Amino acid sequence: MPPPATYNIAMVSDFFFPQPGGVESHIYQLSTKLRDRGHKVIIITHAYKGRTGVRYLTNGLKVYHVPFFVLYRSASFPTVFSFFPIFRNIVLRERIDIVHGHASLSSLCHEAILHARTMGLRTVYTDHSLFGFADAASIFANKLLKFSLSDVDHVICVSHTCKENTVLRASLDPLMVSVIPNAVVAENFKPLDPPPPPTDPYLQSQQQHHSRHNSSSRYHPPPSRPLGPHDTITIVVISRLFYNKGTDLLTAAIPRILENHPHTRFIIAGDGPKAIDLEQMIEQNVLQDRVEMLGPIRHEEVRDVMVRGHIYLHPSLTEAFGTVIVEAASCGLYVVCTQVGGIPEVLPSHMTVFAKPEEDDLVAATGRAIAALRANKVRTELFHEQVKSMYSWTNVATRTERVYNGISGAISEAEFYGYDAANGAGSWSATRGRSGVQSFALIDRLKRYYGCGIWAGKLFCLCVIVDYLIFLFLELWFPRDSIDICPDWPRKQRKTDGKDDG
Amino acid sequence: MLTTAPHLYIRRPSPTTAEFTVTTCPPPSLPLRLLQLTLLLLRLITISLALLALHARFGHDLPLSTASLPPFLANLLQPILSSAPATLLTRLAAQDATPDWLVAGTALGAVYGALAFRPHTTESVLVLRGLGIQTSTTSGGGGWGVQTRFIPTEKIRDVLINEAFRGFGVRYYLVVVVEGEEDVVVLFPGLLPRRRIVEAVWRGVRGCLWEGGEEGKG
Q1: What sign does the dihedral A150-A152-A153-A157 (CA atoms) show?
Q2: pTM (two decimals)
Q3: Protein fold of A8-183+394-482
Q4: Per the CB < 8 Å rule, is B162 touching A66?
Q5: The pLDDT value given to residue A499
Q6: Which ipTM score applies to this complex?
Q7: Strand ranges (DSSP E) for B93-146?
Q8: Per-domain residue ranges for chain A?
């Protein structure tokens, strides 16, 4: 077997550290794990306050903070072509093969995909969010997405719902969209330490027996102390308090839940424009002693807040994946969540209670969860090990690597897309150009863009032609051999497959 | 033709001293010498024309005669003074329509340009073990003299290579971290030579400043 191919990958997104968030940590974790597998990864993002230029993170991950104007919520201003010269310079000096863009609201990512295709590089795009189809902003965003995804080699979505959404929004061939979920670093979300071992000699000898022979995966911790009927159950909510996170639902449900269940209390962490509504609700119903609002917390503190509770309540109205409920389950919390977006795919049914996104059902579902906990029907102490075996970034990196292999032709089309697709090649030759290894010829690219709409298609073609002319001009004006090649950070030895698939 | 891409010369008068010069001046050759000679002649002609114009305008009472000069110089100057461009210039400068300041300004500007014009940029770093680093810049275009700066050894925290965005690209550059200063000192700030040169200088500077005996090794 020949040594597996390694790639030079550029992750491009507007969103990266020091700003906190899900996309940011996704990029970081994925990059780190890809580096562990022997690839070279750099990150291109825009400049943050006090952070411009070229930086190395402590593990040697190189980050280019390109100085750009920030438009809204740290998304940069969409200037279609202005990024090209710098982008070309970075790509050439780092010898990039694959450009991987993240997040649909990031104009930097869309521009990079367009320019990368013009330069003849493979492109991958990861979608992290769901969008509607109805309002004007969504229509515009969808058109933009269609533009940049017309010529992308492959798309990755974080859940099947997200895939469906993206396929519809950007009119993609479903074959070129893969689903690779997010993951969590389970070590950072451990439940509280189990109580000290019982003094019963029989149990002790059993435990010794286990630890001698076996890893902890087969060893099931004893059930935690059962909850009595008068013990307080704490419900934790950690979310940014925005409309789309369902804060209104939460505001309506909290008084009713507390009224129905006397020995319960809430801990709410997070900040946002809806925080004021929650505070009003607390004042009106005089619930100061039963609802604790912590305000904004850092990501490192999330675990410490979570382990104080028994139930995690997630009232979100739209969610592509919902990493936070995985984190909650990993901390050993029973999860109550709304059945929207990609959430039903995330956790197995014995860890969750689903509710419709409405007030009555949310109250009822929370009631069911409290009842189940009081009846000790839920083994929450087992959740951590189960989550750990389900979600790991190493697994995400392995699957992403397979996508890279597929688009660069290292594994055959039949293997990558499945044999059915390859056999029926004649019947879907129209889409084949999009699903197969994409041709870089300008005329083929123009064909793909032309199909985007009556007017939009022509406009997009114009943009692509201008981009190509800029590319030719740059080749003349800043010739390739005048750009210094960066020395690589020492690459890690590629680990063998299977061993690290934990 | 008079300039090339920046390249590096290293001079090592003693094991503890090294001078790194980055210049756009091409290595000496016959065509270059001829060009430089032409440039010198052009400078002389510009200056003498400017002086002639000034004389025509302001020096009416000083008769322009070559009689008092040695005969060989007079023979050389006479045809130049009576040539068509010279007489044209004299006529132009003597016209009353052109204001005084215009004639004076143009002439002085031409003199300054002829004296100060330099076709190439040279930047150098002189490293003296135990003393420090002296940087000097002779910039191209116009400008007088050499800008130098001395950084004593005890103020030098480190010498390192960094990357930064500049214009439409990312460049490597060499910096000296100076104690007590907010900004680092960039070496070769005008030329910003390429990575090969920057790395060679970095190795040389560190070897000369800190590493004992085995100068030139990284």
Answers
A1: negative
A2: 0.79
A3: Rossmann fold (3.40.50)
A4: no
A5: 41
A6: 0.75
A7: 122-128, 132-138
A8: 8-183+394-482, 187-196+225-391
